[in-house]
Amino acid sequence: MDPKHIAELRSLIGDPARVIVNPQMVEQLSRDFYWYSPVLRKQLDGKVGEVVVQPLSAGDVQKTLRYCFLNNIPVTARGAGTGNYGQAVPLEGGVVLDLARMDRIEEITKDGVAVCQPGVRLGDLENEGRKAGWELRCYPSTIIKASVGGFLGGGSGGIGTVTHGGLRDFQTVRAIEVVTMEPEPRIVLHEGEAVHEILHAWGTNGIITRIWLALTPAVDWSQCVVAFDSFNAAFDFSEQIAVDERWIKRLVTVFEWPIPSFFTPILHYAPEGHTLIFFMIASSQLSELEAAARKAGGKVTHSAAYPGLHARPLLSDYTWNHTTLWAIRTDEAYTYLQCGFSHENAREQLRRLREKFGMEILFHMEFMKNGDGIVFPGAIPVVYYTTEERLNEMIDFCREIGVWVANPHVNNVEGGGRYRPDNVQLLAKQKYDPKGLLNPGKMVTFHSQSSPAGASTK
């Protein structure tokens, strides 16, 4: 990047330490966990920004975007870098806008809405919320590191989804403020249904600067691990708990063997050859759950009160996409898919997958609730990678038999499975980023009518 741009950005921000050019730091802040995918690893290795800008306020964001719009400099927003699709990897250099220092919790309202900046860590918000009698409705397994803004921009669900649905359901996100990429960047408030213009758009159509996130009354939780001799028995019991609304639960996760063998710190909870279920259940129902599990043929291998995110073990560290990380640590050939199974025909779908692909696909099920209130078996199956063609064959077959797939091996919003069919994310980009300078290349249905992004960044 032209040194003139560096100097002028430092002058605009007013603090040279928040405009970073150190190559190692810039490279570090240009990466996320895209390397979970061997396909994305080949595409994105070596892609870095040219400078990192760390705003403290929406005003700083406006100054930065105004300058970058004038000079045709691409801008890629970064939360905490815990995404897996390469959302935060700049394809065309330019500015990495690191929002980590915009980390203020402004308020937790009496009716349980958190008002905060995008850089707030989800773990911090969970802890602060619980002090006031509230907790997050849902959160990713990366809760300790992940930011609220990054979750809204690139995430979808996680722990809590079995009861409260995903991030886009049941008005969990009440409102979002974004800064636009225009000659005079505006702060635009999105409320109600309008939040869907911005959710899961990877920072391609506006920079999130303020969030109103609905919480839920806090529960006294316990953690429980149950082992079953067979996957079928475990799946039956987990489904029974997941769909029955009288059970107060935050997590119902099933791992077929050998996935539990990957969890080296907690192998003493994993009898050889058994399928495991991890539960977060209301402490008031723990003894009843244990009794039900034993009656169904399960063995309780761990059961304890959940003291919060400092719990040891923290079972969520082994669920959702953390499961994939444990698999990769065991064998780098493992990767994953993100799937949704039928709440009516899941067993037949699982049977057909096993029949066609054998143990190339290992079943890891996460029970979820959709926006219609139906609890269904989601899944982040662990996949043994051989070739991209074989991986695509698995994805195509899943879709052929009615298994929904959000493809985690593509680097664009549309292919990742959360693109809105009503095109509101694309329409927002056309309104708020007419030059296509925000995270260029990540919304492939967008075509700028202006000069190409990145034309004068070098």
Describe the structure.
This protein is of the alpha+beta class. It has three domains: 96 residues, Uridine Diphospho-n-acetylenolpyruvylglucosamine Reductase, domain 2, CATH 3.30.43.10; 113 residues, Uridine Diphospho-n-acetylenolpyruvylglucosamine Reductase, domain 3, CATH 3.30.465; 186 residues, Vanillyl-alcohol Oxidase, Chain A, domain 3, CATH 3.40.462.40. 27% of the residues lie in helices and 22% in strands. The chain is built from 13 helices and 21 strands. Strand 8 and strand 9 form a beta hairpin. It is globular and about 70 Å long. The N and C termini lie close together (4 Å). The C terminus is likely disordered.
Notable characteristics:
22% strand, 13 helices, Uridine Diphospho-n-acetylenolpyruvylglucosamine Reductase, domain 2, Vanillyl-alcohol Oxidase, Chain A, domain 3, 27% helix, single chain, globular, Uridine Diphospho-n-acetylenolpyruvylglucosamine Reductase, domain 3, 458 residues, six-stranded antiparallel beta sheet, alpha+beta
